[in-house]
Amino acid sequence: MRSLGIPGVLLFGIPGAKDDAASGAFDSDGIVQRAVREIKRVDLNLLVITDVCACEYTDHGHCGILTGGVVDNDLTLPLLARTAVSHAAAGADIVAPSDMMDGRVVVIRDALEREGYSMTPIMSYAAKYASAYYGPFREAAGSAPGFGDRRSHQMDPGNAREALREIAIDLEEGADLIIVKPALSYLDVIHAARDAFDVPLTAYNVSGEYAMIKAAARLGWIDEERITLETLLSMKRAGADRIITYHAKEVARWLAST
């Protein structure tokens, strides 16, 4: 990865088995924990960020513990904290909670400091919208909700001002970096966040955005390289310092050849 000029990776895990407690998320021998240790064995200097959520590990596909068929915010917080600590213990450089539970950043920060990982940064998915753009990832990871949706905790796509409030809360709770997700339909939110906060800001170019370009290119409707570079440039222009994207390897090769 670094030979292409890509400085880091963001890890998600697909466990061999799932349950209603998302126990695979915090297993010290879980898929993400093993991957972190192996990556660091091969390349100690590659930045490793780990996604902290429960949706890939629950048999119902929701982002936390359920009570009466509804995600229980407060019961989910200890699960997230335990997962983040297990990632830090495995060697993760940054933990990235993506669940959108209220209060999760401060709980994770307290747990990291209590367990001796006070220097591990938190990259918070501070403005994560309840979007249809996540579809291809959820299908690949088997993490789509078995019933209902995630609008109880993810943000309303029609509300931009709420994003700034959510970001401010996460920063107050101890987040070091913030993410706006998705990116392409939320460039206004990225721009507003850039104007309001002087912290590292990441745009998450999600699976649906990636898949649309790939599908149109396969049909011969667009110039894939030009469209991809223009799309990512729009995120940078809006104010993103960093971009998380499935296009990374291809873009790195295209840029190296120019």
Task: Give a written overview of the molecule.
It is a single chain. The chain has helices at residues 31-42, 73-90, 104-114, 135-141, 161-173, 187-196, 207-218, 224-238, 248-257; strands at 8-11, 47-52, 66-67, 70-71, 94-97, 123-128, 177-181, 201-205, 242-245. The protein has a single domain (2-257), classed as TIM Barrel (Alpha-Beta Barrel), CATH 3.20.20. The protein has 258 residues and is α/β, with parallel strands linked by helices. The protein is globular. It is 42% helix and 15% strand. The model has no long low-confidence stretch (mean pLDDT 92).
Task: Provide tags for this entry.
9 helices, 4-stranded parallel β-sheet, alpha/beta, TIM Barrel, single chain, 258 residues, globular, 3-stranded parallel β-sheet
